[in-house]
Specification:
Layout (H helix, E strand, L loop, with lengths): L1 H15 L7 E8 L5 E8 L4 E16 L2 E21 L2 E18 L2 E18 L5 E12 L3 E12 L1
Antiparallel strand pairs: 1-2, 1-8, 2-3, 3-4, 4-5, 5-6, 6-7, 7-8
């Protein structure tokens, strides 16, 4: 019985000495899946799988009888990513998801809003330390609306 107790105590001390891996990322991405700029939160849910939510932004301008109008449109995006370890803190990432695009317009004094989910996929390189620290990614992205549009992005942030 004493041997079992000693084994349990040693095992619990050894387990408590292990560091937990960081599972949360916050980062900004220029271009990429959020189009021109996005702010993102990502949660690592297993060794090779993560879920991302973000807010993408695009700058637009239009002309009307009253002049030129500029606006910053925001829209949510969500993705699931699969990570393949290359070496150490370096990963190849493959992701799929979509962004929710909304547009509003007036028609005979009524305001209508239309929604569309634009599918997107991404593949690229990711530097992500196991502990806390600096995060970096560079991706090639494809959007599929009426046509497939190639795109790319760079993300920087922190993992904690």
């Amino acid at each position: 019985m004493k041997i079992i107790m000693i084994i349990l105590i040693v095992a619990s001390v050894a387990y408590s000495q292990q560091k937990d891996k960081a599972k949360n990322l916050t980062y900004a991405e220029i271009f990429g899946n959020g189009l021109f700029f996005s702010v993102n939160y990502e949660r690592i849910i297993s060794e090779n799988l993560s879920v991302r939510v973000g807010l993408g932004n695009v700058y637009g301008s239009s002309a009307s009888n009253s002049g030129e109008h500029h606006s910053l449109e925001s829209f949510p995006l969500a993705m699931i990513n699969y990570l393949i370890e290359i070496y150490g803190n370096n990963y190849f990432e493959i992701g799929a998801g979509g962004l929710i695009a909304a547009s509003g317009f007036s028609f005979f004094n009524t305001y209508e809003t239309t929604f569309a989910i634009v599918p997107t996929i991404a593949a690229g390189y990711r530097y992500s330390p196991a502990d806390r620290g600096f995060f970096f990614s560079i991706t090639i992205d494809l959007f599929s609306a009426d046509y497939t549009y190639p795109w790319g992005g760079i993300g920087v942030g922190f993992i904690f």
